[in-house]
Amino acid sequence: MEYTNITEEDRELIDAATTVIQKNFLYGKHHVGSAVRSKSGKIYVGVHLESQNIDVCAEHVAMGMVVSNGEREFDSIVAITMWDVPKPTIILPCNTCRELINFYGPETWVILEINGGPKKCKAKDLITLA
Ligand SMILES: [Zn+2]
């Protein structure tokens, strides 16, 4: 698959996702932060929620924030984990997230870590990844 280099705006999105999980990390409850840039350029953030039997992904929460604020289109999204890693790290959205992001916006940029550095690809290209 072809990946695209990230921009300054993408770095800003990574920083926003990192900040939200650094501020709100709670062992056993909140390990992942996500940030979504809407088409208007505004950044929305969310952290994942967890109980014994349920996980609500940070991407779901961040996307819900976009829609709850009256916006409908996404430009880009990233998720950062602080679970079991030495420093905040970009993660690949899970299958459920990939499906949801693609359903809402197949042209949404998804920021990933590829060979140790951030890159991005379209949600529609990510949906086919196993
Ligand atoms: Zn997920």
From TrEMBL:
**One Pfam family it belongs to:** dCMP_cyt_deam_1
The record ties this protein, via InterPro entries, to: APOBEC/CMP_deaminase_Zn-bd (IPR016192), CMP_dCMP_dom (IPR002125), Cyt/Deoxycyt_deaminase (IPR050202), Cytidine_deaminase-like (IPR016193)
User: What cellular-component terms does GO give this entry?
Assistant: cytosol
Keyword annotations:
Hydrolase, Metal-binding, Zinc
- Please state every residue range assigned to the domain named CMP/dCMP-type deaminase: 8-130
Gene3D superfamilies, sorted:
Cytidine Deaminase, domain 2
An example GO biological process term is: nucleobase-containing small molecule metabolic process
Q: Which top-rank group of organisms is this from?
A: Bacteria
A molecular function (GO) term: identical protein binding
Identify the PANTHER family for this entry.
CYTIDINE DEAMINASE
Identify its protein family: Belongs to the cytidine and deoxycytidylate deaminase family.
Q: What is this protein called?
A: CMP/dCMP-type deaminase domain-containing protein
Identify the species of origin. Answer: Candidatus Falkowbacteria bacterium CG1_02_41_21
